[in-house]
Design brief:
The chain is α/β, with parallel strands linked by helices. It contains ten helices and 16 strands. The strands form four sheets. Strands 1-9-16-13-10-11 form a six-stranded mixed sheet, sandwiched between helices. A six-stranded mixed sheet has the order 3-2-8-6-4-5, with helices on both faces. β10, α7 and β11 form a beta-alpha-beta unit. The longest helix has 20 residues.
């Protein structure tokens, strides 16, 4: 680490060349609809299974981001991606169609942050010129892998979040390629376990890890929360966000006025998602749709993106294990 205990400063700050988002019908009915790049009419995306639909989603996000950057697949040196399905089959099956060197990632719903950190480090170190960083999730694939068969029609608990059907991709490149949005630093998170065992309350499981990463980032960089226009968590949801802010308050950090949560933002109350959204695609979709747009038009100058993840599986839940959390923080800045 060259910026403190857990934080990296990128000396040759990688630039954000483009971002792309694609979402399902439910997400397109939400408050962020004007910002998404593509919306599906049906969540099966014309495929024979939801797993195949998610694969097509993921591949479409990468292809869309490459086109948005004015590039071709041959211009991308590495594809860094992840998802929630066993053995990250969505990302790896997408990669087989793209003919781009591939690094598979997994840290649950925080995978997007992990992909951005690895991509930025490879570019900063001079090992690659451009990297595609992507994640995806799908309500119907995640629900039947982690919880119950869809056909059961199981009622969601009051603390449950709705897995986002969507995929997002960010193309990072060497500084000086035309973009004024840069990856400035990153804080690699620790795995934190506060003993939460309810798989329907993942916001509470992830909040301590998010708080630890933000506190460590501020300590390592010597910054106050006022340095950032927004501190953006990945998918803590309503309850998890409240706990996150309380944990920061207990350490003397007052972030309520600058905090946004992608899971809270993507749905509204009328959509019967009282806790908001979740999923590996949640933070990548909202960042590439809403926050990149706001940075391009100059409404936002600095954000700390903190994708959050609950490190559970169906197997670990059946064994009575608690749910560890992880959060990786990535600092983006606009430089004139």
């Amino acid at each position: 680490m060259n910026g403190g205990k857990q934080t990296i400063y990128f000396r040759n700050k990688p630039s954000v060349l483009s971002g792309y988002s694609i979402v399902g019908p439910k997400e397109a009915m939400g408050p962020l609809d004007p910002y998404f790049h593509k919306r599906l009419r049906k969540d099966d995306f014309g495929q024979k299974s939801y797993e195949k639909a998610e694969c097509k989603l993921h591949m479409s996000a990468i292809s869309g981001a490459i086109i948005a950057a004015g590039l071709s697949p041959t211009d991308i040196d590495v594809n860094i991606g992840g998802d929630l399905l066993n053995q990250i089959i969505t990302s790896s099956f997408s990669a087989r169609e793209l003919d781009i060197p591939f690094i598979g990632m997994y840290s649950a719903c925080s995978t997007f942050g992990q992909a951005l950190i690895i991509g930025a480090a490879l570019i900063d170190g001079g090992y690659v010129r451009r990297a595609a960083c992507s994640t995806s999730s799908h309500f119907s694939t995640a629900e039947r892998q982690y919880r119950y068969p869809l056909e059961l029609g199981t009622q969601m608990t009051p603390t449950s979040q709705w897995t986002v059907t969507g995929a997002g991709c960010t193309i990072l490149g060497k500084a000086g390629e035309g973009s004024n949005i840069f990856v400035e630093s990153a804080t690699i998170g620790k795995v934190i376990d506060f003993g939460i065992s309810d798989a329907n309350n993942m916001g509470a499981a992830m909040a301590p890890a998010a708080a630890q990463s933000v506190l460590q980032h501020l300590k390592d960089t010597g910054r106050d929360v006022s340095y950032y226009d927004y501190i953006v968590t990945g998918d803590l949801g309503v309850y998890g966000s409240r706990l996150f802010l309380e944990l920061l308050e207990s350490e003397g950090v007052h972030a309520a006025e600058r905090h946004k949560d992608c899971g809270e933002m993507i749905f509204d109350k009328k959509q019967r998602c009282p806790q908001g959204g979740s999923g590996a695609g949640c933070s990548s979709v909202v960042f590439n749709a809403y926050f990149l747009y706001q940075m391009r038009v100059g409404s936002i100058k600095r954000i700390l993106l903190v994708p959050t993840g609950a490190l559970l599986s169906k197997l670990s839940s059946l064994q009575g294990e608690t749910i560890p959390g992880i959060a990786n923080a990535v600092s983006f800045v606009v430089e004139e």
